[in-house]
Design goal:
By secondary structure, the protein is mainly beta. Among the domains are: 164 residues, Jelly Rolls, CATH 2.60.120; 98 residues, no CATH class; 72 residues, no CATH class. The protein has four helices and 61 strands. The strands form 14 sheets. It has a seven-stranded antiparallel beta sheet, with no helix packed on it. Strands 29-28-25-26-27-24-30 form a seven-stranded antiparallel beta sheet, with no helix packed on it. The termini are close together.
């Protein structure tokens, strides 16, 4: 008697798992996963059903390959689109309300390819959208006037008086000393070593926190400039006793009476020379550039790090002396611009600077063009991550903290009422020593999703509940590595809309789309997220999410279409034939499918009645077939493109035990059963599983099958097929060491699989 083993699977929560797990019978992913799970949607119950379709919103005639929805103000939502050399704003109705091909300075928009467009980062703030791209483009600001007008302009930092409110940082080596020739006017700046390049002309440097506009380049050690803020001068301080016994070169000294601060740049047996560092706090004098140097006075005590000595005579203030306290603008045409931006705590953030890769700038509160750093809590902030890392993105999390994604590290910045985001409060806490890919992270409920440095795994930042380490990085795709390669974008809806389940959508560089069902508890443990591929006729170029909606930029037969996920449809690029949305209104003399001439479509009537494949003529008209019940003018007629749903369980294996030849001989699936709900027909197929020979079919090819039709004898085929709740059983023909069987649905319509059962010989 042939011994058999039976297996039933009712939980498909792990989705399509790596084939490497197929012999690991006891693994949870093996028990709750499928060998194939294409174009399905995992439900909260663990069952699976045919995936949702996509409704066509508007045709794209300008070459946009990336479209995302955003809110510019309460109740005002638009879509922003990027294509090679173009940026457009599109209304909710699908109308283009603004189109730009040039930057605010008149130069052409620099993104010219699909890989370029992937690197664009944008954030809405107030009535503007801030856009960054690479290091050569000055950030762009697209602004809405609140009515109907959109404009584009270069991002320019605020200027008050002569002071440019931008971020500064010491980029040149620390040991280089510069000497300005005077405190005001047109001056020469000399450096002790090579510090300058010709491109620095037009940029600003700061000498002791006072700004100089560079106007000329003489050589790597000499430049010319115009003083925008009067420079602190220098003083010679005379002492009765030898100051060398107390002070050293480079010491910072303070006047006990005047409060003046200075840096010692020279000393001998009776005197020291100090470059003055102190300035008054008057806002007026700071902004206008007036002299506000605080000088040392005679007879006061000069205090240094190793002691103090009374000043006999403090000479008058002279021209600046050589000093290493200087820095330069973080971003400009010379140093480049930030490649990433974000908004949090009512501040615009900029990061991924070419000149300071580890730098992050936060603007002043509610003042996105003010990047000038000082001690005021509302003013701007500029900080550097601890390691020698490049900051790719900064993303605010649900726990108030901010997360810093670097190429080689991952940090978080704690933010709380007791530790607000203000100058001097920023601290970087290491979260992971692994780097991140240049793929913008997305917030999913309380969890941030991001791609690892190799862009081949999806990761999550989860809250641990621990005090010492409140966050941890988890791998969400360790059992699904075959599905991810060259991740380009992540999309996560942030609300329940058409269904209660939550999904993450990941687009790979090869155009393949992977969809994972999750819940917050599973994300927190970093396990049991069910991933599966979605495919179809259209090539997905971008996927994005807003609130509960998911949008796709797809190409069908050369036509670019913006689509929205729609759980009421069973076709992609679904379009009402006889009442299309306004953007699909056909040109004069054209039919309703004018945008895909001489192609084919699937027609459906009354939502679930498939009418089969129809041809489209050269003018976009549907060619009738004169089938029974055909009515091409009915209002409920929908045209679109199909896909194939596949669900293939693993064949059950016998457990180790007494020798009955288990796992040693060719086996057959003696019975294959499916328990389904809302069925509109499907196929039960045996698939080829080897051995491979020069003349054999390909792995997974259908060898034999049983068709369960949508209509039975006596059903009215002019009406939607009955939604059946049935159990179907079949005996596949053939043996193999690794027998395979699958459920396949290649006709549009609903199908929900509650259980798959197999009986196989040992």
């Amino acid at each position: 008697m042939v011994q058999k083993i039976e297996g039933g699977q009712r939980d498909f929560s792990y989705g399509e798992i790596d084939i490497a797990l197929k012999r690991n019978d006891d693994h949870p992913a093996r028990k709750g996963g499928l060998r194939q799970m294409a174009n399905t949607r995992i439900l909260n119950s663990g069952a699976i059903q045919n995936r949702s379709g996509r409704r066509a919103l508007f045709p794209i005639t300008s070459g946009l390959t990336r479209i995302e929805k955003f809110t510019i103000s309460a109740g005002n939502n638009y879509k922003i689109g990027f294509g090679p050399g173009i940026l457009q704003i599109v209304s909710e109705a699908g109308a283009v309300v603004a189109s730009f091909k040039n930057q605010g300075n008149g130069a052409a928009l620099p993104w010219v390819s699909a890989s370029d467009i992937q690197s664009i980062v944008f954030v809405p703030f107030s009535l503007s959208v801030y856009i960054t791209f690479g290091h050569s483009m000055r950030p762009q600001v697209v602004t809405w006037n609140g009515v109907s007008t959109w404009t584009i302009a270069d991002y320019d930092e605020l200027v008050i008086g002569n002071q440019k409110r931008t971020a500064f940082y010491r980029i040149a080596p620390q040991n280089i000393v510069i000497t300005p020739s005077a405190q005001t006017g047109s001056i020469t700046i000399s450096a002790s070593s090579d510090a300058f390049e010709p491109g620095i002309v037009g940029a600003r440097i700061r000498f002791v926190e006072r700004q100089i506009l560079v106007t000329g380049y003489t050589g790597p050690q000499v430049i010319a400039g115009t003083v925008e803020e009067t420079l602190p001068g220098s003083q010679v301080l005379l002492f009765v006793n030898d100051p060398r016994k107390i002070f050293s070169l480079g010491d910072e000294v303070i006047g006990a009476t005047s409060g003046s601060k200075g840096l010692i740049t020279a000393l001998d047996g009776s005197s020291i020379t100090v470059q003055l560092l102190s300035t008054q706090t008057s806002t007026f004098t700071t902004f206008t550039g007036s002299s506000n140097t605080v000088a040392f006075v005679s007879s006061e005590l000069c205090v240094g790090p190793s002691g103090s000595e009374s000043i006999q005579t403090a000479n008058s203030v002279g021209n600046p002396t050589g000093c290493s306290v200087w820095d330069e603008e973080v971003m400009n045409d010379y140093r480049g611009y930030p490649a990433s931006c974000f908004v949090d705590q009512f501040r615009l953030g900029l990061c991924n600077f070419s000149g300071v890769p580890g730098g992050i700038a936060w603007s002043a509160i509610d003042s996105p063009t003010d990047l000038f750093v000082d001690a005021s809590g509302d003013n701007a902030i500029f900080e550097i991550v601890p390691a020698n890392a490049q900051v790719l993105y900064v993303a605010p999390g649900a726990e108030s903290s901010e997360f810093v994604f670097c190429d080689t590290k991952l940090y978080y910045i704690p933010i709380s009422p007791s530790s607000p985001l203000v100058p001097g409060s920023v601290s970087f806490q290491i979260l992971s020593g692994d780097g991140c890919a240049q793929v913008q992270p997305r917030l999913a409920q309380d969890v941030l999703l991001y791609a690892n440095a190799g862009a081949n795994s999806l990761m999550a930042i989860v809250a641990t509940g621990a005090f010492n380490k409140p966050f941890a990085a988890k791998n969400l795709s360790e059992y699904h590595s075959h599905l991810f390669s060259g991740i380009t974008t992540i999309a996560v809806p942030t609300a329940d809309a058409q269904f209660n389940e939550r999904y993450a959508y990941v687009l790979n560089s090869n155009g393949s789309l992977v969809v994972g069902k999750y819940n917050l508890g599973d994300l927190g443990s970093g396990s049991k997220i069910g991933w599966g591929p979605w495919s179809g006729v259209g090539v997905v170029q971008w996927v994005s999410a807003w609130n509960g909606d998911v949008f796709f930029t797809s190409n069908y037969f050369g036509a670019d279409i913006c689509e929205q996920l729609d759980d009421t449809l069973y076709l992609d690029c679904g379009l009402s034939v006889n009442s299309p949305p306004a953007p699909f209104a056909p040109p004069a003399g054209k039919g309703p499918l004018w945008f895909i001439p001489s192609q084919s479509v699937i027609l459906m009537d009354q939502n679930t009645r498939p009418m089969g494949t129809y041809q489209v003529d050269a003018n976009g008209n549907i060619i009738p077939q004169f089938n029974g019940g055909e009515n091409l003018s009915i209002a409920s007629l929908v045209a679109g493109q199909p896909w194939t749903m596949t669900a293939e369980p693993f064949c059950p294996d016998a457990s180790p035990g007494g020798d009955v030849g288990q796992r040693m001989f060719r086996r057959r699936i003696s019975r294959f059963a499916a328990y389904v709900v809302n069925s509109t027909g499907f196929r039960m197929a045996r698939l080829f599983s080897g051995p491979i020979t020069p003349n054999s079919p390909s792995l997974g090819a259908i060898m034999n099958e049983r068709i369960i039709p949508a209509y039975n004898v006596g059903d009215d085929a002019t009406k939607p097929p009955p939604l059946r709740e049935i159990a179907e059983r079949w005996r596949p023909i053939g043996k193999a060491f690794d027998p395979r069987a699958a459920i396949i649905k290649d006709t549009p319509g609903p199908l929900l699989i509650e259980e798959l059962g197999m009986e196989a010989t040992i």
